[in-house]
């Protein structure tokens, strides 16, 4: 069993490729998937297309005739990680195709690694396939190469990311995502729902709804209705909730209409219980001047009122967020405002970044950059407070009975998650006795008997 580290990057999703045994003569492609869950979905779509064309998929470089590296370009540290992964793939394999967010800067990649076969940008699936065809021609066998109905998944079978849109209309000064992925482009609601239906039919028990700005879903297409489904986050959440799986919403900006999602979560509402009582909201900061320099809505006080209203209508709601400390110009007083705001907001799950420059971001040109040692000191103070809040909230759950989903079972016990925990970025609930009959994907009731800073421990109630 693994425990959740407190500084786990909330922008990362970890691919889980399984080893296939290629048939004789079957071309094999390796995949390295870096970055956020949105990039993970792109990797799944590429691999699904390749499997449909008769390629075998390798979880590493060995035995592959070419390797695709899906890169991240969100932070300079992520860019460095991507360049390192490309270099490793070149050393281990030699034939490398680069795609993803960093692919929006082809000269940056080829300047460091001129031997790559091709560079494509994010969600340019056809260009990736063209590059693969040029490097390793397909050789499909229609009688053998069968594609599962749900496509290729890089997550465990019982949960799946569901991407509802691409791009973003915000112009935050610290972010270059709109430059890399473009403006908001929403998928038709009926297409999202059909994908979700297929996933649930294939055994998925939890749908993780993702995009760059989930609450803006459908704005670009004027919330069009097509085939009985309206492209609006409230309507989509209601439709997805009718499928019987857990539905978890990520990257939800706190627009006023978010309050209409809360009745879908509250069990005391007529339409409640359709989606999980969980909101992942990127607040980023709390001081109005800092938010203004970030070019984000400066309404931290109103946000506290919204949070209070959400909790009034849905007492069990879990709120997760991420913050940036050490943003250019952040004074000690502004940082203290953030700590005071966190004290009042009492968020359940919190991640924190130290600000760093990103090539092309407007924040680079702001005055009064914060020294590295001050960023580190503020990060430590922030995380100390967030940890204390988390520890107190989890301690209050001791003695409660909670529904959990089983993620993994080994000889030590079962690793599970409550409705308050998203995979990879939140905590876990561990069962270390009487777990032998459990299997990944099961949803069971557990009695909590111990709490830590980020995780819970529990046991299955005795059978009557």
From TrEMBL:
The highest taxon in the source lineage is: Bacteria
**Chain sites annotated for binding [4Fe-4S] cluster 2:** 168, 172, 175
Q: Does the keyword Nucleotidyltransferase apply?
A: no
Show where the TRAM domain sits: 395-462
What's a single GO MF annotation on this record? protein methylthiotransferase activity
Taking the first listed entry, what is the main subcellular location of this protein, grouped into a coarse class? cytoplasm
Q: Catalytic activity, per the record?
A: L-aspartate(89)-[ribosomal protein uS12]-hydrogen + (sulfur carrier)-SH + AH2 + 2 S-adenosyl-L-methionine = 3-methylsulfanyl-L-aspartate(89)-[ribosomal protein uS12]-hydrogen + (sulfur carrier)-H + 5'-deoxyadenosine + L-methionine + A + S-adenosyl-L-homocysteine + 2 H(+)
- List the InterPro entries: Elp3/MiaA/NifB-like_rSAM, Methylthiotransferase, Methylthiotransferase_N, Methylthiotransferase_N_sf, NA-bd_OB-fold, Ribosomal_uS12_MeSTrfase_RimO, rSAM, rSAM_horseshoe
Give the EC number.
2.8.4.4
Cofactor(s) required, per the database record: [4Fe-4S] cluster
For [4Fe-4S] cluster 1, which residues are the binding ones?
36, 72, 101
Which top EC class applies here? Answer: transferase
Protein family according to the UniProt entry: Belongs to the methylthiotransferase family. RimO subfamily.
Q: What is this protein called?
A: Ribosomal protein uS12 methylthiotransferase RimO
> What organism is listed for this UniProt entry?
Acidimangrovimonas pyrenivorans
Lineage per the UniProt record: Bacteria, Pseudomonadati, Pseudomonadota, Alphaproteobacteria, Rhodobacterales
